[in-house]
Design a protein that fits this description.
heterodimer; A: ABC transporter involved in vitamin B12 uptake, BtuC; B: four-stranded antiparallel β-sheet; 7 helices
Chain lengths: ~270, ~250
């Protein structure tokens, strides 16, 4: 294992895993407390359309996926702020259309035979230096926003009606949270894939919610747990030659089961 | 005595459906006003107009002689807490700090002055010892006292509460109203509620609203409602309000 650490692609994979896990811990907390899990799922699957287009036009995958994911986030934010009761219909619609666009463009790409599984279930060993730069910038943006506008984000997440009365621009912060969720989903696709990304954004948060009495604490614990699950998952992935995303999510799921069992026994 | 809140000839309609018309209401300092009325009668619409959530179409709402929209910080608002997630990871003092309108940004949230002010208002509602507890660990009555503390953060002159005791047990309801009685020694209290029997024990005036509004000064009749059941209060109240209230409307 130690020998593997000397390879630059393994180093990149580990650095990306840690950075993405921190993003996922922070943004996953906001997704869960704002009850946006289904929204995030819709955005994740829509981004597949961007992956397909990026492959067809020879653009960077992160760029294509980000454009589609942010576009979906803006559309869904606008709809959920105006017609909350119809949002599930639009999520379903945008989810399916995004996937369909992705599949069509990949079909149309001449001579294309890339492993689609890597986008659906993650392929962390293909992380480049450019990817690392993109992920680092995203993490810095997330940290800056959550630290500087912590009280507004907290107010909007806890009681948006009251926050609005106190002069907080609820629509802007709601949209901002969704856009950050979209970008986090895009980078998380790299390690767990778009099918499993929701598990990475919710399992550590669920455990952290029970262990924390503040949103900041929940974000920190969740980020820490995500890092642990990712590193342990990557270890098993390397040792047993498993798909990285599935390995990470199963480590997280098993940890959740152990946590719930301990909680159950403590409260008996 | 000049009124602290004055509503004149207020009219409001949702598209073509009238919600409120010809509303005139004058509230003095240290009044304890109960606003009651049937569902769909316009209670919530009136609240939203006072708070500036809905825009006034005709008439005016003034606070101490000034347009209400320019002095909303003089109103402390306690919403009906039906949408709040009680499992949310937030401490009691953080909930109270949401009452602050300060636009200055402090890294990681709050300044020392703001936190000490939060503790001060929590002391006022008897919840200081719970300041660091998670909000979800409190009882319904305790949570409502925290919401009142949040509304008191800006030292309002009017405290406006929307159904403050819905989904709270009888003991909690009593605690909330006893607290409002104490706060009423300094500020005006306006409560929208359908719990007629308990609110009439504490209110000095009652406004019955069903598209139009009828105001009654309970004054010396307050004891008449003490420890009486809902039906008795409803019948007595309709008698007091007299023929102005449309027949067939239930409170």
């Amino acid at each position: 294992m130690l020998e593997a650490l000397s390879y630059s692609f393994i180093q990149n994979a580990l650095i990306a895993g840690v950075l993405i896990s921190i993003c996922a811990g922070i943004i996953g907390s906001l997704i869960v407390v704002n009850r946006m899990v289904f929204l995030a799922g819709g955005i994740a699957h829509t981004s597949y359309g961007g992956i397909g287009m990026a492959i067809y036009f020879g653009l960077p995958i992160f760029f294509g996926a980000s454009v589609f994911a942010v576009g979906a986030a803006l559309i869904l934010a606008s709809i959920s702020l105006k017609q909350k009761n119809r949002i599930d219909t639009f999520i379903g619609l945008i989810w399916a259309v995004g996937m369909a666009i992705g599949v069509l463009f990949i079909d149309l790409t001449p001579g294309y035979n890339v492993d689609l599984m890597s986008y659906l279930f993650g392929s962390i060993l293909a992380v480049s230096r450019d990817d690392l730069l993109f992920i680092s910038i995203l993490l810095l943006i997330i940290l800056f926003i959550t630290i500087f506008w912590y009280r507004d984000i907290l107010a909007v997440s806890y009681d948006s009606e009251y926050a609005s009365l106190r002069g907080v621009h609820v629509k802007s912060f709601y949209t901002l949270i969704l856009v950050l969720s979209a970008l986090t989903v895009v980078v998380s696709i790299k390690i767990v894939g778009l099918i499993l990304v929701i598990a990475l954004l919710t399992i550590p948060v669920y455990i952290a919610e029970k262990l924390s009495s503040t949103l900041g604490g929940m974000m920190s614990i969740s980020a820490l747990l995500s890092v642990c699950f990712t590193l342990v998952g990557l270890y098993f992935s390397y040792i047993y030659d498993l798909t990285s995303g599935a390995s990470i999510i199963l480590v997280a799921a098993l940890s959740l089961i152990v946590f719930l069992a301990i909680n159950f026994l403590r409260h008996r | 005595m000049s009124p602290i809140l004055e509503i004149k000839n207020l009219y409001f309609a949702y598209e073509k459906q009238k919600a409120l018309e010809n509303i005139n209401l004058s509230i003095n300092k240290k009044d304890f006003l109960a606003i009651i009325g049937p569902n769909g009668g316009g209670k919530s619409t009136l609240l939203k107009l006072i708070l500036g959530i809905n825009k006034i179409q005709e008439g005016s709402i003034e606070i101490e002689g000034k347009n209400s929209s320019s002095c909303l910080n003089k109103i402390g608002y306690v919403p009906q807490n039906t949408n709040v997630n009680i499992d949310f990871p937030i401490r009691v003092f953080e909930v109270v700090l949401m009452g602050h309108t300060n636009k200055k940004r402090v890294l990681f949230g709050y300044s020392k002055d703001e936190i000490s002010k939060a503790y001060e208002v929590l002391q006022k509602v008897g919840m200081k010892k719970f300041a660091k507890n998670k909000i979800g660990s409190l009882s319904g009555g305790q949570r409502q006292r925290v919401m009142i503390a949040r509304a008191l953060f800006t030292n309002p002159q009017i405290l406006l509460l929307d159904e403050p005791t819905s989904s709270i047990d009888a003991k909690g309801q009593k605690e909330v109203y006893e607290l409002l009685k104490i706060l009423n020694e300094d500020i005006t209290v306006v409560v929208v509620s359908h719990d007629i029997s308990i609110i009439l024990e504490y209110a000095s005036k009652v406004a019955y609203i069903n598209r139009t509004l009828v105001l009654h000064d309970i004054g010396i009749n307050q004891n008449r409602f003490k420890s009486k059941d809902e039906h008795f209060c409803e019948v007595e109240l309709l008698n007091l309000l007299g023929s102005k209230v449309q027949k067939g409307c239930s409170c």
